[in-house]
Amino acid sequence: MDHKGQSSSDKRAVRRVLRACRIAVGLASLLVLAGTGVAATMLSELTGALATSDALGAGSPKSSGGDVNLLLIGLDSRKDQDGNPLPPQILDQLHAGDGNEGGYNTNTLILLHIPGDGGKVSAVSIPRDDYVAVSGIPGYTHAKIKEAYGLAKAQAEQALAAHGVTGKADLEHQGREAGRKKTLETVRTFLDVPIDRFAEVNLAGFYDLATALGGVEVCLDHPVADSYSGANFPAGHQTLNGAQALSFARQRHGLTNGDLDRTHRQQAFLSSAAQKLRSAGTFTDLGKLRALIDTAQKDVVVSAGWDVLAFAQQARNLTGGNLEFTTLPIKGYAKIDGQDVNTVDVDRVRSAVRTAFGAPAPAAPQVHASATVDVRNATAKTGLAATVARALAPYGFRDGELTNGRGTSAITYGAGAAGDAATAAKLLGGLPVTADTRVPAGHVRVTLGPGFALPPSPGPPGTATPPGTTAAPPPAGPQGGTVDGSGVPCVD
């Protein structure tokens, strides 16, 4: 962006910083803009200036029939793309602390399904504290889904530094690319659906989008006052400016269902922003139109190869009000390794995604294991070997030896037990599997290394929870139902 003509150095500094900001909901400006019939020359200008990422990879699975699954990644970072903290005047506006909070968590993950036949667009929000399987991160077999980005980023930066990369910006750029790749992989594995496109935006995007629109209307069922986020609003319909909109979308303290209710706020913001973009005058005001394009250019990173002009036709229902949001279900709350997490039933989550996207259910897998399972506990969690053996028993595994020892999380097997070893690996979160002639025929040997945690739902309902884990039922209130994206929905 050209900064000539700015009246002060402070304004130039603020514009430079905001150019580097990203937040998931800021992507709405790009998506809705694409579907409103804006001149092709304007969209061409927008497309050419967007930052792109190769994190998806050329060989990643793709949807069929012209459908597009689009993942919105909202990064809760107080740093710009070079790793520098946002200046205090920006953080003060955003109620975002001193710049050290947030880390690199993906506090917003929304997967949109845009049918190739022009049907209704469906969006599913993934609660940020869902405890899911992760791979390729040393010391972790499971983590909160929001942590995959930051854990992979830190690992990549350590490896780069060990190979002599010292530039702060280089480490930041390559680290973020590793974070994107791991987030895409984790979401794809968790939901068992392809991801065709993605976009990442960061904390100031709410602020920028609402400001560019001249404010966004929201509706609250109850008045709120929260010092953490800065949200202080009466009940009913009201129009929020940029800073207020960010407070509205970030609040979780004082809400009945905490983060789940915050997810509904994010959905309501997207719906209301789309409503504002549909309103008369938005695209006849050249000043607003330029501000929206500037917002998309400075606040959005998209997957490489995205043809926005072609996507505009497919995304038309995002601006026609034919959009529905759903929050994916959780099984309950638990404390694992000192962290508060959401436990999930993976099969139920995947079923919810298929229902929302109108996809057929897969054939039910038939599991009839017969191997004897020996479990070695190499963690500090007393009784974990017995708990794992009990979790595997409903699938036909026979009880073997339970021992304590050393080792990393892995599965080995003897003659005739390859299939059962693969089944056990899948049930236990994707552990590596190898044949071993030292393991008796018909036996599967499971080693539980440091950092191993039993998946929240590896077996049928009622499977025991790992020792050291305290569990609680799911929230008493609704987990969200659906949020109508055709107007300004009222939320808690």
TrEMBL record:
Residues 105-278 form the Cell envelope-related transcriptional attenuator domain. Residues 449-492 are annotated as: Disordered. Residues 371-452 form the LytR/CpsA/Psr regulator C-terminal domain. Residues 453-464 have a biased composition (Pro residues). Coiled coil: none annotated. Belongs to the LytR/CpsA/Psr (LCP) family. This is LCP family protein. It comes from Amycolatopsis mongoliensis. The lineage of its organism: Bacteria, Bacillati, Actinomycetota, Actinomycetes, Pseudonocardiales.
